[in-house]
Amino acid sequence: MLLDLSEEHKEHLAFLPQVDSTVVAEFGRIAVEFLRRGSNPKIYEGAARKLNVSSDTVQHGVEGLTYLLTESSKLMISELDFQDSVFVLGFSEELNKLLLQLYLDNRKEIRTILSELAPDLPSYHSLEWRLDVQLASRSLRQQIKPSVTIKLHLNQNGDHNTKVLQTDPATLLHLVQQLEQALEEMKTNHCRRVVRNIK
């Protein structure tokens, strides 16, 4: 699977061939540090003074490299696919090898960082439901007013919490249809490829 780099990312990465390979390696280290701790303008300003360029140019170069490494790590693309993705940028063979080495050296750590940044969403534990039907009231002697009450038990970080939801059968039926449609869509080839690449 090849990376699809936008023109903006290609422009950001276009700065890399203009600098020495040691600088590119340092940019790689800064990119991983950027993922760990966030952006640090002082680092960009210091590097910009040494290279005699604007701090925005350095920042864009690091951000472009960060994007390249994170997307490659997220998709766990192979060495060959990474080389093919970088090849379209028109860099020298030496720079392509350096970028490949940066990717191979850091992909496990980047995946670990990305997994820590991902939100911890609640997961399903169990479900209780009840159907209530109001057949009459003081003002209306004959009416049918059904409602479904759902008690949803969830797990999150080892904690159990409960959500109580109430709806009418028509809305519940619509929700069920939408979920079934989503499950059918998950069986398509496109979704299978996406899920396989996420894992």
UniProtKB/TrEMBL annotation:
Residues 123-190 form the COMM domain. Coiled coil: none annotated. It comes from the Eukaryota. This is COMD2 protein. It comes from Crocuta crocuta.
